[in-house]
Design goal:
Blueprint: H1 2-25, E1 41-43, E2 59-64, E3 70-75, E4 77-80, E5 83-89, H2 98-105, E6 108-113, E7 116-121, E8 123-124, H3 128-141, H4 146-149, E9 154-159
Parallel strand pairs: 1-7
Antiparallel strand pairs: 2-3, 2-6, 4-5, 5-9, 6-7, 8-9
């Protein structure tokens, strides 16, 4: 029994040390591989114009998981009608986008655009007309006609100014 406790304690210490190292280094997402903490320069001032983000194809989004570790992913964004939007379009049947569940449960996110970090509380877009218009703007930006031609499940989130 004593040996089992020593082994469990050693494993726990190693996990804590690993999480500490990952917290310091960040572990940004790469490609389709999700990451943990995003690193960069935190912007605390309100953003009156998100149009600069529309020139960037991929941004990173960090969510808060139920198990207390952050989860970050690479996603697209679109600037439409004065607002920045992030969305998911479930194009791969059976693949669950965990970040959606995280944001629906807790809408506080961290966006990384370039090397800048923006802490925001996003809002789920429930108006069908606004959602459709944002998805059309996204399809135009990413030249993705599939987004419009199929009945795909999607969530659209509006990013506030501050």
């Amino acid at each position: 029994m004593k040996t089992l406790l020593k082994v469990a304690g050693a494993i726990l210490v190693c996990l804590v040390l690993l999480l500490l190292v990952l917290r310091i280094t960040g572990l940004d997402p790469k490609g389709l591989r999700p990451g943990l903490w995003l690193t960069g320069n935190v912007v605390t001032t309100p953003v009156a114009d998100w149009s600069f983000a529309d020139k960037i194809m991929t941004v990173q989004l960090q969510t808060r998981t139920w198990y207390l570790l952050p989860h970050s992913v690479n996603i697209g964004c679109v600037y439409y009608n004065g607002y920045l939007y992030v969305s998911s379009v479930h194009m791969r049947p059976g693949v669950k986008y965990r970040w959606n569940d995280d944001v629906l449960r807790d809408p506080r996110v961290r966006l990384k655009i370039g090397n800048q970090l923006f802490d925001r509380t996003v809002t789920l877009v429930t108006d069908p007309a606004e959602k459709e218009a944002v998805l059309q703007a996204k399809a135009k930006k990413y030249s993705d006609a599939k987004v419009l031609s199929q009945n795909l499940t999607s969530n659209v989130f509006r990013v506030p100014e501050n």
